[in-house]
Amino acid sequence: MCDKNKQVSEWLKVVLGEVPWFEVNMRTIDILYKLSKDSEQRGQEIGWLVEDVKQKTGECKADGAYHQKVLQSALGENVSRGKLKPMSRSLNTLESMAIAFKTKDTKVASFLASTNYQTKVLLEMEEENRELQKKLRNLEKKKNEVLNSQKSLQIQISKVQKAQEVESVETEERLLNKNFMEKKFQEMTSRVRSAEEKLASREVTWSLTHHCIEEISEQLSVVKQEMDPLKRKLQAYHGLPLSVPLARLAVAESKKELEALDAILDERIDWRHT
Predict the structure, then answer these.
(1) Is 234 exposed, middle or buried (0-12, 13-18, 19+ CB in 10 A)?
(2) Could you tell me which of 195, 200, 211, 222 has the C-alpha nearest to residue 272?
(3) What residues have CB less than 8 Å from 273, skipping those under 6 apart?
(4) Residue 87 lies in a domain
(5) How many domains does one find in the chain?
(6) DSSP track, 3-35
(7) pLDDT for 178-234, tens place per residue?
(8) Domain of 92?
(9) Residue 198 lies in a domain
(10) Rounded CA gap, 162 and 31, in Å?
């Protein structure tokens, strides 16, 4: 880890001038270390290519000088420089073409072979470029799918969070209602217990229950029904001509009957309370 970090720092210093800030971890160091090794290998390959170009340039220059000597020997020493200039330019052009096409010499066969090779390389690069574009489109498609999935997940998470908030509020309300009902239950229990204690202290018998009260109510209804004929009879007396002795007699009889009924009713009520 320390050796890799040191090599990465030295490589960054050489490439960028100064080491930029980056997060130091195993993954980052491994990636930068691999890049540094690839860069060194690429540098070596470029150096070899430069040396090869220099060597071929020297060979082409030697070949041009040789052809120039051959032409001079064929045309004679007295050929003017003005006639040799176009030939020299042509030779320089052939030399440049040989360097560009990376041929061993300036023969037509070498140029054709180099052209075929460069065409093949170009076609391979175009095919590779098409493959890379296809992969890039697939990656873009996958990236969009991942982004859509992420967006959908965020929406689902938001819905779940809102549902949890609502459920939390409802749960809190239930707890409050539960606490309220428990307090009310305790309060009612306490009141019932207090009422029982008060009834016990007053020695109230349990015979005065709801059923007993209903029976007393029914008996009162019967007594009222028995009193209705007497009331109607009393009203009949009110319709008679005024006769003080008779009226007094009728009123006295009615009062006696009412008093008798009231006495019976009081006895029944007192019996229920005892």
Answers:
(1) middle
(2) 211
(3) 205, 208
(4) yes
(5) 2
(6) HHHHHHHHHHHHHHSSPPP---SHHHHHHHHHH
(7) 878 888 778 878 877 877 677 677 665 555 555 666 777 777 777 777 777 766 666
(8) 1-104
(9) no
(10) 42
